[in-house]
Request: fold
Amino acid sequence: MGNDTNCAVQPEHKITLRPVVGLTETLPKRDLEEITIQAIMTYRHLRDAAEAKYEEWRNAPPVSSCDTVGPARIAYVSAMIDMHVQQTLLSTLLDVLGHIPLVPAD
Reply:
């Protein structure tokens, strides 16, 4: 992953999405802040969805097959992947912006 053209591993093993940096680093701060606020709001939505999927998985009946973990756990894992992808995007945007913008409460 370290020499991939789509991301770079920083010395502290932080992933930076270089295409996002390239797309946003020359934007006016006001525009970048707007994009970052939207990314924060999307992250919050995905986090809440992942938490809901976790509860659904925990309350689902046990899976009787060894061939699958079941649809509830698959939905939870998919939701967590979506959330972590958004978290990586958000981290990159915050690095480019240089500060955490004020975001309205949900």
Notes: The first strand starts at residue 8 and ends at 9. The longest helix spans residues 29-59. Residues 66 and 90 are 37 Å apart (CA to CA). The chain has three helices and two strands.
